[in-house]
């Protein structure tokens, strides 16, 4: 591996404080840092050169909430509601995941993140039923070259219980190094709103360990304003706290988040489809709350942040138009712009993780987590007129040409580097085989194909004619 790499002649989306765009610029990487940015840079002898002409060089994307252990069941729950997800994972079959199944899911999720230009991923790992499951989760992450944060959780036990388990403490002491550049650490649990505040001991453990808490907040039917109020009244809302979804909160709760400096991880595809609530970027913008993006779980949705950016712009603008139309008004200028969602997918994630000083933008001295968007074989790659808009609406994972993490090339010419996909496929296949055998074929099939609600005849005085049959029907 060369000690220095230069990406030549690309359009650089710096995502700096001014969202500067630099056309025809080079980015020089030395070791794990960005050493220089400029046109026609003079580089050290032996520097590896990557042609970025006609492409976009941008920061590595950062996903702040992904249940990586579930990735072995990609697409299994495509037709679920949130209730069905809860029942399947929390009450029924999530319990039968073995440590090796967590490993397989994490390995596959880590690879698919890197392949899509996501260089840092928060593993919202709420399937850690034992410390052995946690070891397997970390092993799966560290089998790849990505940057990760392990958000330790256990949906099968109360937060106060698993955080008090000596096995949990032993795991933290053995596998987690404070300040580790490639593996961060959070605690992941939800606050029910029970007036007794049973989650308080878990918050105290997080404070003792000096690590942030990430929590699903504002989820319809699960977590609500009472949880936010309890956290605030007990002094556990901090600038490091990441609130996931935050889609059904009151003005009071948003104000508490804003006042304490926390951020929200928006999983737009999830919120649109599962039922947590309407994607809340419109409310977060109104209250000045920092935003990052996430994809949630591959059991349902796409595993890249291009889809997240696109869905987020669509949801925010759709609501803006809908509310304007209800008032009899017309929106003439969109409030949410493409450059903002690109920032949320990069610098916003770095800010949420307390890494804005060295991640999330293309600036000299920062970590060399970089993505080159270039696909000479696609007609969608040109013309390149609005770079932020191109990333948000036109690009997709197939257009990710090169990915660097910590100065190391992990994807080159559209393919992952030094990756044994066959081994990952075998590990995932073993998990699927185990689940099908344990569940039984009937339960397996029923799980992915929930019952369809009964239909009813709508109250409509009009009829329509089926011109293929000539029959007349009531709508």
From TrEMBL:
GO MF term list: hydrolase activity, acting on carbon-nitrogen (but not peptide) bonds
Source domain of life: Bacteria
All copies of domain Amidohydrolase-related, residue ranges: 56-410
A Pfam family matched in the record: Amidohydro_1
Classification via SUPFAM superfamilies: Composite domain of metallo-dependent hydrolases, Metallo-dependent hydrolases
Keywords noted in UniProt: Hydrolase
Keyword match Hydrolase: yes
Enzyme Commission number(s): 3.5.4.-
The protein's name: Melamine deaminase
Species, as recorded: Pseudonocardia autotrophica (Amycolata autotrophica)
């Amino acid at each position: 591996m060369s000690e220095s790499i230069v990406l030549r002649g690309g359009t650089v989306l710096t995502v700096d404080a001014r969202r500067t765009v630099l056309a025809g610029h080079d980015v020089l990487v030395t070791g794990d840092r960005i050493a220089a940015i400029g046109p026609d840079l003079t580089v050290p002898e032996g520097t590896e050169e990557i042609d970025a002409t006609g492409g976009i060089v941008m920061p590595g994307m950062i996903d702040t909430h992904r249940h990586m252990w579930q990735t072995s069941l990609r697409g299994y729950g495509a037709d679920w509601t949130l209730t069905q997800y809860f029942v399947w994972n929390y009450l029924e079959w999530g319990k039968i995941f073995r440590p090796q199944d967590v490993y397989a899911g994490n390995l596959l999720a880590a690879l698919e993140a890197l392949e899509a230009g996501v260089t840092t991923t928060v593993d919202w790992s709420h399937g850690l039923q034992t410390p052995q499951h946690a070891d397997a989760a970390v092993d799966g992450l560290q089998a790849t070259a990505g940057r990760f944060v392990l958000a330790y959780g256990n949906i099968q036990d109360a937060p106060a219980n698993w955080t008090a388990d000596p096995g949990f403490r032993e795991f933290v002491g053995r596998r987690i190094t404070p300040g580790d550049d490639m593996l961060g650490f959070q605690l992941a649990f939800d606050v029910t709103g029970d007036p007794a505040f049973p989650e308080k001991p878990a918050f105290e453990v997080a404070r003792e360990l000096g690590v942030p808490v990430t929590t699903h907040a504002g989820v319809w039917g699960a977590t609500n304003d009472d949880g936010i109020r309890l956290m605030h009244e007990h002094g556990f809302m901090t600038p490091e706290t990441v609130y996931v979804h935050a889609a059904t909160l009151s003005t009071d709760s948003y104000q508490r988040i804003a006042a304490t400096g926390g951020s929200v991880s928006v999983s737009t595809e999830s919120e649109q489809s599962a039922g947590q609530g309407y994607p809340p970027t419109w409310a977060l913008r109104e209250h000045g709350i920092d935003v990052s993006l996430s994809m949630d779980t591959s059991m349902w949705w796409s595993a890249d942040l291009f889809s997240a950016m696109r869905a987020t712009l669509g949801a925010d603008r759709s609501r803006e138009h809908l509310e304007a139309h209800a008032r009899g008004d017309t929106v003439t200028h969109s409030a949410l712009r493409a450059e903002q969602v690109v920032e949320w997918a990069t610098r916003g994630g770095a800010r949420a993780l307390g890494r804005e000083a060295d991640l999330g933008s293309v600036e000299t001295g920062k970590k060399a987590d970089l993505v080159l968007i270039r696909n000479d074989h696609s007609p969608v790659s040109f013309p390149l007129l609005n770079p932020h808009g191109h990333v948000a609406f036109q690009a997709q994972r197939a257009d990710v040409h090169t990915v660097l993490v910590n100065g190391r090339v992990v994807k080159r010419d559209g393919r992952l580097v030094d990756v044994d996909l066959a081994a990952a496929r075998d590990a995932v296949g073993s998990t699927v085989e185990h689940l099908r055998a344990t569940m039984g074929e009937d339960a397996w099939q029923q799980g992915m194909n929930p019952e369809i609600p009964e239909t009813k005849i709508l109250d409509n005085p009009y009829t329509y004619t089926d011109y293929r049959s000539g029959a007349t029907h009531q709508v």
